[in-house]
Amino acid sequence: MRISCNNVGIQKAVQIINKGGIVIFPTDTVYGIGCDPYNQNGVLSLYKIKKREKTKPFPVIGYSKKELEKIAEFNDKAEKI
């Protein structure tokens, strides 16, 4: 399903994510793929789609370190950044 990049499209993408779905979205250079990191079904679907080992974590993008600490671990190098 292709969704327009407007208010209606964004609302539809949010609905998909909230139901454990996956969305693909353009960035400045490549396309990203994502899901709700708090939804186990979404995360498992992402691992399946990417054919990624479950022991290998995904990169995570968030709006604050405090929010990211809920789902990600920061090593010493990441803490310095």
Q: How does this structure look, described?
A:
The chain contains four helices and two strands, in the order H-E-E-H-H-H. The chain has helices at residues 7-18, 40-50, 65-68, 76-80; strands spanning 23-26, 31-34. The chain has one domain (7-80). The mean pLDDT is 91. The chain is an alpha+beta fold.
Task: Please provide a brief summary of the model.
The chain has 81 residues and is an alpha+beta fold. The chain has one domain (7-80).
Layout of SSEs?
Layout: H1 7-18, E1 23-26, E2 31-34, H2 40-50, H3 65-68, H4 76-80
Antiparallel strand pairs: 1-2
Which properties best describe this structure?
alpha+beta, two-stranded antiparallel sheet, 40% helix
User: How are strands sequenced across the largest beta sheet?
Assistant: 1-2
- How do the SSEs run, as a string of H and E? HEEHHH
Distance between the termini: 37 Å
User: Helical element count?
Assistant: 4
Largest sheet: 2 strands, antiparallel
Q: State the total count of DSSP E strands.
A: 2
Helical fraction? 25-40%
Structural class: alpha+beta
Can you tell me the residue ranges where pLDDT is under 50 for at least 5 consecutive residues? none
Residue-averaged pLDDT: 91
User: How large, in whole angstroms, is the Cα Rg?
Assistant: 14 Å
Give the percentage of residues in beta strands. 5-15%
Looking at the structure, what is the overall shape?
globular
**Count of all domains:** 1
